[in-house]
Amino acid sequence: MIRTENGKTLAAFRAWYVALTFHGRYTLLRALLESCPHGTAIHLLVLWLKEEILKADQPASTSYFRGKPMFELLAVLFAFDGGDPLHSFDRHMAVLNFCRFLLLFGSGSPARVVENNALGMWNSALLDEIQQRLIGPLQAACTRAAAAASADRTTLTGVSSADPCAMEPSPVVQEQGDGTVIVPINPDGNHRHGGETAHMQRQMNLWLLQGAVADLAETVRAGREHM
């Protein structure tokens, strides 16, 4: 029931959004991106922004979804407090993928995409801003998060994550005289394994985030060679 009501609300909001002018849609997207604290909502807004980019060849839209207005939107998306990057995992993934989408927008070889510069993204000032406000801070934050994850893993298992082949010792099996077998249960086992599950999920998200940062950094590096 709740999901149905949410779906109806989103559909109504979407219909209202589409009915706005280009200026109205740009203003609304910018306001929501500046104020929305929810990563999943940011992801949806970025998808709508991509739609605007894909139809930005319409004359009335070019003044809002290309050039300086788009740079100003990106500046809003670059906001990062320097804390734990996984607390805003969905937001960071959406922003990183969106930046890469903008840089790769076009057709043909990478050199042709840079040369055509369909969205005006390939200029040194903007690339420097992407490096300084997005790639650099997230790389540093991911490095700190990886160090913290390694320490957490050691605390949980008593085994350093630097040694991925290390295994937890097997429990001592006791065979009784009647042939029954007793396997001692670790009284902290449930707590420990629950902690390990959370750690594994966090580690997976960290790998995904590091990969997205590396992909954007490589796109910027490779594109600069054709500028």
Describe the structure.
- The chain has helices at residues 2-18, 22-35, 39-54, 62-65, 67-77, 89-103, 110-116, 124-157, 189-224; strands spanning 174-175, 181-182.
- It has 227 residues and is mainly alpha-helical.
- Helix 8 (124-157) packs antiparallel against helix 9 (189-224).
- The longest helix has 36 residues, at 189-224.
- The N and C termini lie far apart (53 Å).
* Strand line-up of the largest beta sheet: 1-2
Shape: globular
Order of helices and strands: HHHHHHHHEEH
What level of helicity do the residues show? 55-70%
Tell me the structural class.
mainly alpha
Gyration radius over CA: 24 Å
Q: How much β-strand is present in the residues?
A: under 5%
- Average pLDDT over all residues: 78
Unreliably modeled segments: 164-173
Q: What labels would you give this structure?
A:
227 residues; mainly alpha; 2% strand; globular
